Amino acid sequence: MRRTLRTASALAFLVLALLASACAPSATATPTPAGPTDVPLTSVEVIRSTNMSQSYSDTLFTDFVKEKFKLDLRYTYYPSSTFQEKLSLSFSTNSYGDVLELVDSAIINRYSKDGFFQPLEGIIDSKLPNYRKAYSDEDWAFLLSSMSDAEGRLYALPVRMATGSTGSNIFFYRSAQFEKAGAKVPTTVEELYDGLMAIKTKINPNVTIPNQWGLANVYSGFDCAFRTQNVVWKDPDAGGQLVYGPITDKFRDLLIYMNKLYESGLLAKEFSTMSDEQFWSEYSAGNTYFCWRYPGFHNKKLNGLLTAAKIEPDWEYDLDNLLLSAYPDKGPLQQRYGTFYTATVAITDKLEADATALVLSYFDWSCTEEGQLFHEFGVEGETYEVAGDGIPSFIGKYSDATDTNKLGSYYGNLQDFGPFGYFLVENEAHANKFYPEYKESNAALKDFEYMDLFVPIPYRFSQAEETRQAELYVVVDSVSKEYQLSFIVGTKDPGSDADWNEYIGKMEKAGIDEYMQLLRDANARTVK
Amino acid sequence: MIKDRSLSSLVIDIFVYGIATSVFVVTLFPFLNLISTSISGNMAVLTGKVGFLPVDVTFEAYGRVLSNWLIPNAFFNSVFYTITSSLYSVVITLMMAYPMAKKDFILRKPVWYMLVVTMYFSGGMIPTFLLVSEMGMIDSWASQVFPLAIAVGNLILMRIFINNVPAELEESAKLDGAQEVSVFFRIILPLIKPGIATITLYYALWKWNDFFNPMIYFSTYQKFPLTVILREIVLQGSNVDKFMTAAQMAQKDTEVFMEAYVTRLKDTALIVSMVPILLVFPVLQRYFIKGLNEGAVKG
Question: What is the pTM of this model?
Answer without folding.
Answer: 0.77
